[in-house]
Specification:
It is built from no helices and eleven strands. With about 120 residues, the protein is mostly beta strands. Strands 2, 4, 5, 6, 9, 10 and 11 form a seven-stranded mixed sheet that branches. Strands 1-3-8-7 form a four-stranded antiparallel sheet, with no helix packed on it. It is globular.
Length: about 120
């Protein structure tokens, strides 16, 4: 049984930083790309960042480029999202997801098959 569990969310002041972690169990973590998505109140879920299984490639939404960094530790079975210079508009529930082996893209929900329960990130102004 595949399971993804996010942690590290919380309340932070604008300009501050948070580091989100995603722990994988019940799967061969190193065989899959991983991504982070977020959903703000009243908004659709949107792509944030993704990283290939080899760690050689990463993708970022324009809204977070230069501020967020995605990484992974295949030996530990974890994926992380370092978020710096946080803005109030970053407030959302953040979800970790495993990329589907049958898809070729990285930036849409359709490309991912396993999802975590989400962790709340709130940025105060």
């Amino acid at each position: 049984q595949v399971q993804l569990v996010e942690s590290g969310g919380g309340l932070v002041q604008a300009g501050g930083s948070l580091r989100l972690s995603c722990a994988a169990s019940g799967s061969t973590f190193s065989s899959y790309g991983m991504g982070w998505f977020r959903q703000a109140p009243g908004k659709e879920r949107e792509f944030v960042a993704a990283i290939s299984q080899s760690r050689l490639n990463a993708w970022y939404a324009d809204s977070v480029k230069g501020r967020f960094t995605i990484s992974r530790d295949n030996a530990k079975g974890t994926a992380s999202l370092q978020m710096n210079s946080l803005k109030p508009e970053d407030t959302a529930i953040y979800y970790c997801a495993r990329r589907s082996a049958s898809r070729g893209g990285w930036t849409t929900e359709f490309e991912y098959d396993i999802w975590g329960q989400g962790t709340q990130v709130t940025v105060s102004s």
